[in-house]
Structures are given as structure tokens and as C-alpha cells.
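Example record

The entry below shows one chain as it appears in the dataset: sequence first, then C-alpha cells.
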Amino acid sequence: MLRRYLLREVTVFFLLGVLLFVGLVTTDLLSSLSGVLLSRETPLPVVLTLVLYRLPYTLGVALPLGLVFAVLVALARMIRTSELKSAYAGGVPPLSLLWPLVALGAVVSVLVFANAAWVKPEAQSRFEAKLYQVYYGTQPSGVLYRKAFAPNGLGVYYAERIYPGDAGAELERVRIIDADGVIWSAERGRWEGARWILGPTYRVDKNGNVEYQTSASFPFPARYNPAFRRRDYEALPLKSLRQLARVDPKARFPLERRYADALGALVLVWLAGVSGLALRESSLAFALVVVLIFGYYVLWTLSARLFAGAIAGPEVAWLPDLVYGGLALLGTVRLR
């Protein structure tokens, strides 16, 4: 009975928390774009479209943070009315109240992952296209310049220019160094499916011998997507991001982070539940909301800097979850 009552309380505050963080993130978006929106005299329908396309990203932030807010506020209210103290005095163990919160966190974690894997990438792609139109008055071309890939075990693939074609993409001024060290050069080629197909090609072996071939085909473990530019990792569906991570080392961190952020919703709620159930003063709950969210953000930012500085590998994306998960586990043991 008490567990259902707690979940009901948390659910109410969760809805309020999500609305609160959606409002905060949306306000931050509009304030950051206010200069360009005003200078371009952007119509209100376009502004609302940008907000709508950005909503899945906003929810990815608001869902876990809203649940942290809800758990601590609900527990603070129960502390203030002495409901928790009465429950403990009646023999209710704190852990029996923790697991329903963890289960709710797991549900939110699944929602965050589904949103990040499929919904947010499509919306992000449309958001970036619409924002590009606001800035430049036209749609992005999808053309990539001076793009290099290093597929595992396949060598290095480079093209001076890649642009959309009838069946994938067209390649210009291509250079491929295969796994055997043989250099292939071509002025033009095609990226069809999971292959690069070159036109008239010059092949140079390790001894410097040059051979002319009318065409050459090379396996490539990713399909063309104009969002392969570095700033567009968030605009790639999970499957495409997995493919890209096999050939672009810089894409491996965003891939790891996509999984880690989803688990982060569960870890955050777990630690919030442990902390809230251990509180003795309800006034500390709001301070805990700030500390938990700010601390996670610091670790989240630090992990990105460590990867960008080549100090750590893509696995560093899991740093916030490992730290908060360790604290939650320690708190759970002490809560017993």
C-alpha cells in the first residue's frame, strides 16, 4: 500500500518536473537562437517548428532530470509530514521503498533509449535542416568535403568530395590505401550500398609499380548518409551510427554515450532514491536535486573532454554512470 502511494506521489511530481525541465531547456534554446531569429525576422510558425523538432532532444534531458526532481520532492514531502518516520517505526524497511523507484527509473531509461535511438535522430536531422534554412535561406546540400575513414582491417578511404547521387553518393578525387598497403587513386567513383566503386583507377603497389585498371570495387561497412559530418552524430539513427563507428573512430564516443545516457536515467533515479530515503530533513531535498544534476553534468562534460583530448577511449562515456552507480550501490548497502 505504501509503495503504491509513493509511486503515485512520484508520478504527479514527475509530470510537473518534466514540464519544468522542458520549459527550461526550450527557454535556453530560444535565448541562444534569439539573435539570429530576430535578425532574420523569422516567422513565428518557423520558430515553433524549430521548438517542435527539438522536443525529442529536450525530452531526452527532461525525462531523467524530471524523475530525479520527482523522487526527491515526493520523499521530502513524506519526511515533512512524518510519513516516512512512521513507516520506519512500523517496521517497513527502506529498501522496500527503494526498489519501486528503481523499477520506475528502468521504465524511464527504456523510454530515453528508444527516444535517443530512433525518434531524436530524425527530429534532430529536421531541426538542423530547418535551422540551416533560417541561417542561409536554403536547404543543406548533403555534400561532404575532404572526408577520410579508417574501416577496421580495410585500410584508409579518402575522398575530396562526396555528394548525393542517384544510388547513394558520387565520389571525387578518391584515394584508398588497402590493408596490404596498395594505393588506389581515381578521379571519380560511386558509394553504392556498402561498397566504394571506382572508375578508371591507378594502382601503386609497395614497390612503386603502377598499374592502370578500368574499375575497382572495395567493401565499406557503412552506407552513405549526409549526416556523416561530425556535428551530425546526433542526427544518425542507432543503426547508422553503429555502422559509422566501424569506420570513423570519432563516432565511437557518441555511440557509447547514447547507451550510457539511457542507463544514466536509471542510475540517477537509483542514487536519488537512496539519498532521499536516507534524508532526515526535508529542506535538504532541493539541495540534493541541484547537487545530483550538477554533479552528473560535470562528469558528463568531463568524459567528453577526456575523449576529445585523446586522454581516454570512447568507453569514458560511461564515467558518470560508473561514479553514480558506485555511490548508489554504496548507499544501498548502508541503507539496509
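Notes for this example: Residues 153-220 form one domain. The chain has a mean pLDDT of 92.
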